[in-house]
Amino acid sequence: MKASGIIVEYNPFHNGHLHHLQQSRLKTNSEVMIAVMSGNFLQRGEPALVDKWTRTKMALLAGVDLVIELPYAFATAQASDFAKGAIFLLDALKCKSFCFGSEEGSLKAFLHTYDLLLENKADYNTAISTFMKKGVSYPKALNEAYKLISTDVTLPLVDLSKPNNILGYHYIEAAKTLNTEIQPETIQRVIANYHDEAKTSETIASATGIRKVLFDDGDLTGVQPFLPLTSFEALMEWQNTANSFGSWERFYPLLRFIILRHTKESLAQFAEVTEGMENAIWNAATTSITFQSFMEKIKSKRFTWTRIQRMLTHIFTEFTWKQLKETELPTYIRPLGMNKKGQAYLQSIKKDLELPLVSRVAASKENKLLQLDIKAANLYYLGLQSSFGQQMVGSDFRIAPIRM
C-alpha cells in the first residue's frame, strides 16, 4: 500500500482540514493517509482546545487512516525543529510523500526558495544577525534577511511572511537535510488564511478564527458551519464531559502557581526563556490576575507572542534547556488511532520499522521523550480545572490507540 503523510494539529478539525486531507489523497494518489499530530500542547505555545484523543477521533471519522503523536519536544518547538520531528516520523513510517497546505500553492516556488537560501547561507545568516542586533524579533529578522538576498531573483519564490509558507519551507528543508526520499507536495489554502477571523458567509474558516468565535460566544452553535458534523459532535461530547476547553486563560491559575513557586533565577533554566525574560515573567505573575493582562505586561518587540507562549509552555511543563539540547530526533512511533486500513498498513511495515512502535506506554516508560509526553498530558488535564480533568490524569497509561 502506498502511504502519504500530513502534519497536523487539528485544533479543531474543520472543513479546511477536510479539504486538505481529501486533496492530499488525490494529489499523492495514496491508499493510506497518515497524520503526524501534535499532542496536548501546540507549536504556537498553546494548550489544545480539546485533548489528543478527541482530535484523533475527529481525524479518523473524517478519513485519516492512521494518527501518530508528534512528541512534545517537537510539537512545541520552533518551526524548523517542529518540521524535522514530523518529517522524520513520516519517513520512518515509509511514507512515499507528504502534502502540506500553503498560501503559495506552488511546489516549484518552495524548491527555488530552498536552493536560494542554501546557496546564500552565509550572507543570509549574517543579515539575520544584523537585523537582530537592531532589536527586531527573530521571525522579522528572517523575513528582512530573505528580502535582501532575493532582491534580484527572477525565479518564483515563496512569501516567507506567511505562516503556512514558513512551515512548508521547513518541511522541505527537513526532508532534504535528513536525506530522505520522501517527496513533497503542496496544495493552496482556500478562503481562510491562518489568522483570519471566521466569516458567517463562509463554510471554511481558520482554526484560529473558529477558536475565537467559540471563546467569544461561549457556545458551539457559532462554529458549527465551519466543521464537519463528526467534529461538531466530538466538540459537543467534549463540552458535555469536560465542561471546559483548553486555553491559556483557563490554565493561567496553574501557570501562575508554577511560575511563582520558582525564583526568577530558576525560571531561566526552562527552554526558550532567555535574555532576562525570566524577570519579566515572574514580575508579571505577581500582579496579573488574567492571562491577557499577564501577556500585555511581558510582550515586547524582541519576542513574538508565539515565542513568549512557547516559553510559558515549557515553564508549565518544566521542560528545560538541558532537555531541549539533548533532543535530536524522535525515538519512537506512538499510534494514537487507526482505522482498518491504517492498522493493515502498520502491520505490513512493522517488521521494517527502525523505531520502536509504542502502543502501550507502560512498556516503554524509560524513554525520556515519552515521559515528557505523559507529563505534558497530565498537566494539560489538571489545567482544565474540572472533575473530568482530574480523572484523566494518568490516562496515557490506561487509553489504548483508538481503533475504528
UniProtKB/TrEMBL annotation:
Belongs to the TmcAL family. GO terms for molecular function: ATP binding; ligase activity, forming carbon-nitrogen bonds; transferase activity; tRNA binding. This is tRNA(Met) cytidine acetate ligase. Catalyzes the formation of N(4)-acetylcytidine (ac(4)C) at the wobble position of elongator tRNA(Met), using acetate and ATP as substrates. First activates an acetate ion to form acetyladenylate (Ac-AMP) and then transfers the acetyl group to tRNA to form ac(4)C34. Coiled coil: none annotated. One of its GO terms (biological process) is tRNA modification. Signal peptide: none annotated. The keyword Nucleotide-binding applies. It is an enzyme of class 6 (ligase). Keywords: ATP-binding, Cytoplasm, Ligase, Nucleotide-binding, RNA-binding, Transferase, tRNA processing, tRNA-binding. The keyword tRNA processing applies. ATP binds at residues 7-20, 101, 164, 189. Its EC number is 6.3.4.-. It holds the Pfam family HIGH_NTase1.
